[in-house]
Amino acid sequence: MVIIITRPDNCPKTTNTPTHNKFFIRFFGVFFYHFSFFIFNEFLLYFINQDQHTSKT
């Protein structure tokens, strides 16, 4: 994330780099948001199943 945002000063700044960085930041932001949401759902389902199993026994 930091490597994508930061750019060395000796690198030529073209007009493509700002939109390129914005695209990657947006892509990684959406990806991590959905990935964390998926993990959160998995943990919820796991704990709900554990509660059901303990209540059955």
Explained architecture:
- The protein is mainly α.
- It has 2 helices and no strands.
- The longest helix is centred in the middle third of the chain and has 41 residues, at 16-56.
- The radius of gyration is 21 Å and the shape is rod-shaped.
- The chain crosses the membrane at residues 23-48.
- Keywords: Membrane, Transmembrane, Transmembrane helix.
Summarize the structure.
The chain is an all-alpha fold and 57 residues long.
Which helices and strands occur, and which strands form pairs?
Elements: H1 2-5, H2 16-56
Transmembrane segments: 23-48
Keywords: Membrane, Transmembrane, Transmembrane helix
The tally of strands reads 0
Q: What is the N-to-C succession of helices and strands?
A: HH
Helix run count: 2
Shape summary: rod-shaped
Distance between the termini: 47 Å
How many strands, which pairing sense, and closed or not: the largest β-sheet?
Answer: none
Q: Which oligomeric form is depicted?
A: single chain
Key features of this structure:
mainly alpha; 57 residues; 2 helices
